[in-house]
Write a structure and sequence with these properties.
27% of the residues lie in helices and 21% in strands. The chain is built from six helices and eight strands. Helix 2 packs across helix 3 and helix 4 packs antiparallel against helix 5. The longest helix has 14 residues. It is globular and about 40 Å long.
Amino acid sequence: MNAAPGPRTTAAQQSPAAAPAPGAVRPARVVIALGSNLGDRMANLQGAVDALFGPPGLACLAVSPVYETVPVGGPSQPDFLNAVLLASTVLPPRAVLARGQAAEAALHRSRTVAWGPRTLDVDVIAYGDVVSDDPVLSLPHPRAHERAFVLVPWHDVQPDAEIPGRGRIADLLAATAPAATAPAVRRVRNVLRPPS
């Protein structure tokens, strides 16, 4: 899991032009990755979408197709269903993280085994152009650039996206092409309903 920006910020965030007017908050674009490999995986992902966008403060911009993926790291476990959400928010990164953790708790996420199977995993992948090494929430996610199960669905909803400090996701995806084109990442027929 990833929380608020730490001591490092980008130059754009430090410039006066990037600062919102007094009393106004400029929305940030946030990328959220979902994964589930226990129970009814599709229902778990849909539950996450509903929980994340139910309360105000987070507006859905796009919901990616769903992919079935082979687990990366950790013990032997079932395959995941993964998706990526694009959202606009005035919430700070830590609040987005808290909302994701609340969705995990509502779907009975257990953290007894590191990198183990889970009913729901919600990761904040990127928050605008924030770069942070905060130990609670590193931004962008420190391993997103090498994970086809994040890059493939993210590319579906934002093909021109860039990961701050890592480059364009299209280029990063090309670098992971063997993993992205192998059965390790396979699009499924089921789709997630956007929030109403």
